[in-house]
Design goal:
The protein is mainly beta and 1005 residues long. 9% of the residues lie in helices and 47% in strands. The chain has 3 domains: 47-122, Carboxypeptidase-like, regulatory domain (Immunoglobulin-like); 127-258, TonB-dependent receptor, plug domain (Ferric Hydroxamate Uptake Protein, Chain A, domain 1, Beta Complex), CATH 2.170.130.10; 267-652 and 670-1004, Maltoporin, Chain A (Beta Barrel), CATH 2.40.170. One of its GO terms (cellular component) is cell outer membrane.
Length: 1005
């Protein structure tokens, strides 16, 4: 944290050094400009004053603060410890202390020889610059719904992907860490889900390079980023802000900016942390003693092996996470640079599950031609290795396995039982190893052609490769032949952009215009092979697949795929300000995508927004409002996240075709259509209206934002049964003309900061979002999602998309209790005395209608404490784990269960566990996401002045969660999609969440 703090201030130190440089190298000139000759300057200096400049926000020393004599030529800047020393003419001299983002102070020296000065932050100036599409804007001039989050505001703890930094921090953004597995995909939506099969993940832009959201090798597509390298994250939420990205901005845009070096200073930073994690809460299955009591109660014959085994404890562990980061930054007037190396080794709380990531990053900015030409270079290389056991099978056996069976035999090896599996054998015999290598970089030269006119080129490449080995080792007891499956994947994303930016202003008018062209090409390829039957021994087949004994293609046929996607775009933006009060922003983008047919290759995505700075009007001058701005905008964005090639014809070569040449001959070989071409398919589009109000009171100490939005997605892309009777494909992709998905809601964020006279600083903030989601005008009675399988329930569905209901609606039979025979009863909706699928009801949605968070921090002298809490409500979770795993019938067969499954004495042992509202539960929760306590040592007092900062911290993560849900964790979303239709809120053997304590060290020089 301290390391980040000093990096944030390096730019100010650089500016101060640049300003002081002429005085250092040309002292005669500097004094002469003030009307003094060098030979006379000595006689005017009568005393020396020294002092310390402190940050009123957290009490820390301020590096690079400017200290100058008012009306004189003497000036200096504070050193790494915030100290300064300056010669002044006399006691009446007035010192002017300045620091960017803080209120300038003037202090009369008087008879004092040492001063301690505290600068108060100027809330109106802090965090002014926000990154938007193809440029930056001052925060006070943005007319769209945009939220910028700086590194010091990020969530803390064990962070595997950048999305986790945002959880609870930005209104309208729902981050779902649906699994506790290291490196697992983290779900994120901006202002609710839109498409059904096209996904709702926003576009990510890393240092100007748009990613394709692919997950080469599995896991989270952003897990390659070292979060310690991130300087800021900017979230573009409404269409007026995202339309500049056209067909890729329908789900919002998240722009990640990494740290850069600052001219005029150099810094070496080191940070490390060690985290200890354990399962936050286990499922409350019966202990061995309880099991011995409950099995006979339900009429079972107890199979007792005399043990007392907690199988969840056997497969879990206390995980250790180690994180080490080293960075070097600095620069001169012409060149600045930043380099970093990082290592994160994270053990999952399930045994033999761990993720290791090594990352390296370098960026530089070089100026040429009297600063007319500036070249930015960014490059990062990352290696991620994920090792995991068969987690689903492991968890399933751990929660249902007989607790009276000993886990190990007398020799300490996993015990083997006839006809059943010991979960520990999965750990020894099965594993999956995925290795991903990713290199991403771009070069962006910009040339100032004329005053106000700049040309910029952006050329970037994102190249990733992965190898995934899924291995089952051979064994004699139990008898397993062994199998190895290997998958190779390649993803290459190439981008080239050219654009011009023009700026012009005078006393009343300010105009900026942007116009450019973009071309992006994405190549994806995958290959796989497998081999069976290995010799039992010490050799690992991963390293020599040739030892496999079964060499036929019957069970080992190789496979693969490959495709290219191309996107060509023309884009432009115009911003206009009049008298710094009235603002206009207009965006336009035309996209051509290879994913769409010839008749609709291009899509057109305009937007506009208006802003009125009410606080600049004369009637609000000198009022309590330091900022009051009204915003309104409208725009159209698109979504092209569909499979490639679906608009093109598909052919199959057959050994024999469908028609014989005559009644006696064999069928002839030939090629036939598998899918007809569809040249009319086009973009799914979203039209969004946003009205917002930004306000600041009490010199910016209290600030907030209120937004009201309405987003309507239409031209919904669906895979449907073809209307054409001669269409050879059983399903085709098509736009459903009148169908819409609407997300409307209100976002409110508030923050208050205050510093007292004794350097006590505190900050408290929060946000709340209320969203309503609705599917309308669907031509289908239901679009099913959320598949299930198991005895008696296969082919049932859990989620469905219904007219008038939200996305993620649970479409279930309504459980009403038990009849006289102890069998489940359900509501007979149509009154025909038969319970069928026609009796299903809309039983609530998995998508929360309320997101909220509260966060705060306090700082006094060297201590600081920050706390972040977040929650959701209005959502349901389907406990599919309980549905298929726990019942009286299974318990009677010596399969473990929970007390909930046997709580009703009326239920018969023969009752079927049908998919119904019986297993639908409240998914709301409130979580203490993280709390961090730190101390910043005064390095001067410790006698280690060679160190700028020294900080120790301890952080607790997922310390508690308040919820009615009795599964591992309410924040779940197992992928149970049907035919690509997204499912939501289903808990099926989800990886348990961990509770962690992390100890950190930050040091900079």
């Amino acid at each position: 944290m301290v390391k980040i703090y000093y990096s944030r201030h390096c730019v100010h130190l650089g500016l101060a050094l640049l300003l002081a440089a002429p005085c250092a190298f040309f002292p005669d000139v500097a004094l002469a400009e003030q009307g003094f000759a060098r030979k006379n300057a000595t006689f005017l200096i009568q005393q020396t004053v020294s002092g310390l400049v402190l940050d009123g926000l957290d009490g820390k020393p301020m590096v690079g603060a400017s200290v100058a004599v008012k009306g004189g030529g003497q000036s200096t800047s504070t050193d790494a410890n915030g100290a300064f020393s300056l010669q002044v003419p006399d006691n009446n001299a007035v010192l002017v202390i300045r620091y960017v983002g803080y209120i300038t102070q003037e202090i009369t020296v008087g008879s004092r020889s040492r001063l301690e000065i505290t600068l108060k932050p100027d809330q109106a100036e802090l965090a002014q610059v926000v990154v938007v599409g193809y440029g930056t804007q001052n925060k006070k001039d943005i007319t769209g719904a945009v939220k910028s989050l700086k590194s010091e505001e990020f969530n803390k703890g064990i962070i595997s992907s950048p999305q986790q930094l945002l959880q609870g921090k930005v209104s309208g953004v729902n981050v779902t860490a649906a699994s506790g597995e290291p490196g697992a995909a983290t779900g994120i939506t901006v202002r609710g889900p839109g498409g059904l099969r096209t996904g709702s993940t926003p576009l990510f832009v890393i240092d100007g390079l748009p990613l394709d959201n692919s997950s080469t090798g599995g896991g989270d597509p952003l897990a390659f980023i070292n979060t310690q390298d991130i300087e800021s994250i900017d979230v573009l939420k409404d269409a007026s802000a995202t339309a500049i990205y056209g067909s890729r901005g329908a789900n919002g845009v998240i722009i990640v900016t990494t740290k850069r070096g600052k001219a005029g200073t150099s810094m070496l930073g080191f940070s490390s942390s060690v985290g200890i994690s354990k399962i936050a809460r286990a499922l409350p299955v019966f202990t061995a003693a309880q099991f011995r009591t409950e099995v006979p109660k339900v009429g079972g014959v107890l199979d007792d092996k005399g043990g007392d085994t907690d199988w969840q404890d056997e497969i879990t562990r206390q995980g250790l996470t180690q994180n080490y980061n080293l960075n070097l930054s600095g620069g001169s007037e012409k060149l600045s640079y930043f380099a970093s190396l990082g290592s994160q080794q994270e053990e999952g709380i399930i045994r033999k599950n761990q993720m290791g990531r090594y990352s390296g990053r370098f960026n530089a900015t070089q100026k040429f031609l009297d600063d007319r030409l500036m070249v930015d270079v960014n490059i990062s290389a990352n290696n991620t290795k994920n090792s995991r056991p068969p987690i689903t099978s492991l968890l399933n056996d751990a929660i249902v396995y007989n607790p009276t069976y000993p886990a190990r035999n007398s020799a300490g090896a996993p015990a083997v039982y006839q006809g059943t599996n010991n979960p520990l054998l999965y750990l020894d015999l099965n594993k999956e190893i995925t290795t991903i290598n990713r290199v991403i970089g771009n070069i962006s030269p910009s040339l100032r052609i004329l005053k106000g006119l700049v040309y910029k080129l952006n050329f970037g490449v994102d190249n990733s490769t992965s190898t995934r080995d899924v291995e089952s080792l051979p064994s004699t007891v139990p008898l397993i032949d062994g199998r190895l499956e290997t998958y190779y994947n390649i993803n290459k994303n190439t981008l080239i952009e050219n654009y011009l930016t023009w700026n012009w202003s005078n006393d009343k008018h300010n105009v900026s215009a942007l116009g450019g062209h973009s071309f992006q090409k994405i190549f994806v390829q995958g290959r796989n092979y497998s081999i069976n039957k290995f010799i039992v021994g010490n050799a690992d087949p991963i390293y020599n697949p040739g030892v496999g004994q079964e060499l036929t293609l019957a069970n080992n046929r190789p496979g693969g795929f490959a495709f290219n996607n191309e996107l060509q775009s023309f884009f432009g933006r115009v911003t206009y300000q009049y008298n710094s009060k009235y603002l206009l922003t207009a965006n336009f983008r035309t996209d051509g995508s290879s994913k769409f047919g010839a008749n609709n290759k291009y899509g057109y995505f305009p937007s506009f927004s208006l802003g009125w700075k009410i606080s600049e009007e004369s009637f609000l001058k000198n009022s309590m409002f330091s900022n009051l701005m009204l915003r309104a905008g409208y725009g159209i964005t698109g979504n092209q996240e569909i499979p490639p090639k679906i608009t093109q014809a598909l052919f199959s070569s057959l050994a024999s075709a469908s028609y014989p040449l005559n009644s006696t001959s064999v069928y002839a070989a030939g090629t036939t259509y598998s899918r007809l071409a569809n040249p009319d398919i086009q973009w799914e589009t979203s039209k969004q209206t946003n009205i917002g109000l930004d306000f600041g009171l009490f010199n910016g100490a209290l600030s907030g934002t209120l937004d009201v939005f309405n987003k309507v997605s239409d031209n919904i892309l669906l895979q449907v049964i073809p209307a054409d009777p001669v269409q050879p494909a059983s399903t085709v992709w098509s736009n459903v003309k009148d169908m819409t998905v609407t997300n409307k809601g209100v976002e409110f964020a508030l923050n208050y900061s205050h510093t007292t006279g004794n350097n006590f600083t505190y900050n408290i903030g929060g946000n709340i979002t209320h969203t309503k989601n609705k599917v309308e005008n669907s031509p289908y009675s239901i679009i099913p999602s959320g598949s299930v399988s198991g005895a008696g329930i296969t082919s049932s569905t859990i989620n469905g998309y219904l007219n008038g209901q939200p996305i993620g609606t649970f479409f279930l039979k309504e459980f009403t209790g038990f009849d006289a025979n102890g069998l489940s009863t359900y509501r007979d909706l149509d009154g025909d005395n038969i319970i069928t699928d026609k009796d299903r009801i809309s039983a609530g949605t998995a998508v929360p209608d309320m997101l909220y968070s509260v966060f705060g921090s306090v700082a006094f002298k060297g201590f600081d404490l920050s706390v972040n809490m977040n929650g959701v409500s209005g959502n349901k979770t389907y406990d599919y784990t309980a549905n298929v795993g726990f019942s009286k019938l299974r318990l009677a067969k010596n399969v473990n269960a929970t007390p909930e499954s046997v709580a009703n004495t009326k239920e018969s042992i023969n009752n079927a566990a049908m998919v119904s509202t019986r297993y639908l539960k409240d998914g709301a929760y409130f979580r203490l996401n993280n709390a961090s306590l730190g101390y910043n040592f005064n390095t001067s007092k410790l006698g280690i002045g060679w160190a700028n900062t020294l900080r120790l911290s301890v952080t607790g993560q997922n310390l508690f969660v308040i919820t009615k849900y009795d599964g591992y964790d309410p924040e779940v979303n197992a992928d149970r999609a049907i035919g690509g239709v997204s499912s939501y809120g289903i808990d099926f053997l989800s990886y348990p969440r961990a509770k962690s304590v992390i100890f950190g060290l930050n040091l900079s020089f």
